[in-house]
Amino acid sequence: MLAGSIEEVMERVVAVEEMARTAQDATWHAEGDVWTHTKMALEALVEDPTYVQADAGAREVMFAAVLFHDAGKPATTRHEPDGRITSRGHSLAGEVLVRGALWRAGVPFGVREQVCALIRSHQVPFFGVELAPPLAAQRAARLSLSMRNDWLAAVAAADGRGRRTSDPRDRERIVDNCALWREVASEAGCLDRPRVFPDAHTRVLYLDDERAGRAAEVPAFDDTVAEAVVLSGLPGGGKSTWLAAHPELAVVSLDALRDELDVDPGDGQGAVISAARERAREHLRAGRPFAWNATTLTRPFRRSLVELCRSYRFRVRIVYCEVTAIEQRRRNRGRAADAVVPEKVIERMIGRWSVPAPDEAHAVDYVVDGGEAAGWPPGSAGADPVRP
Predict the structure, then answer these.
(1) DSSP string, 305-361
(2) End-to-end alpha-carbon separation of the chain, Å?
(3) How many of the other CB atoms lie within 10 Å of CB of 268?
(4) Pair 71, 170 in one domain
(5) Residue 210 falls within a domain, yes or no?
(6) Which domain does 154 fall in, by range?
(7) Please, where are the H alpha helices in 77-132?
(8) How far is CA 20 from the centre of its chain?
(9) Are both 37 and 114 inside the same structural domain?
(10) pTM score > 0.85 for this model?
(11) Is 97 helix (H, G, I), strand (E, B) or coil?
């Protein structure tokens, strides 16, 4: 993936010195700083049976996930007034840091996103088994669309074994819960593969059921009336190229609205987004298929769009477009002078960049370097994991 020692590879994401000087709460990390813990976790991983028995590609993904699993801690660690040390949000912060670094390094999309997915969810097995059984099975099913649960359990177990806790029973509980997570996922039919559903609409309704009372294997009645397409990706990633190949779709374009409202891309976008949502509602009320053309880089914002469309009984297809870092920069610089997105704006985008996960909509298409994303989602050869 990336050549060099673990120190050299880590430096591509965050300075080892920063990791080494980032303290951790002794209740959960009596071993000391983040870098010490990371090295201990790597030592634990290479002894894990799942890692030992995996092929070279799988080991590469798991090793990178453990190496980077706490990369977000230097930026999120806080010393609380009561003396505790916290790092809330470090999983998501680490995912974003790693995504940007591996993208710039040219790591293949499928490999990168498997690593990022494991980082994002590496603590789930610690507590996921404490959910009610239907909710735990639902969580395992959701995660299986973006990662292998057996790899997730191995990464989490390495995190658990690679630490010392003030009460040894806490460490034992973490490791035991990781083993139990394997059982939860296995019973749900998604330990080493995506959970299978009769169709995409059944999957959407099952995963959105807050009580997890819906049966995953029973087809749901599909009352959708049309499809909305939500485009996602950094500027220059290929969204306009995709739209040009689908002239049948009406388009809600944030770039066009910025021009219409005379709003600079670096300024506040509230008025633009409000106007875009109203344009979208016009299409939704008419039952007319349309495309939302914007970067749409964060999961909460995509979720708000999906919920808006589904409130009008629309299916949603997210089309994510990406090119290499070099090509993205070339395309952006090649735009008309008034259309070039400033580098500082792009850097801010990269700082909150989340690639859509397969569970976010009825369908998620990945258009990477002009074609399908090889090896993504994991276990499904890039296809939506539903029964034919």
Answers:
(1) HHHHHHTTTEEEEEEEEE--HHHHHHHHHTS-GGGPPPHHHHHHHHTT--PPPGGGS
(2) 34
(3) 9
(4) yes
(5) no
(6) 6-187
(7) 90-104, 109-120, 124-128
(8) 27
(9) yes
(10) yes
(11) helix
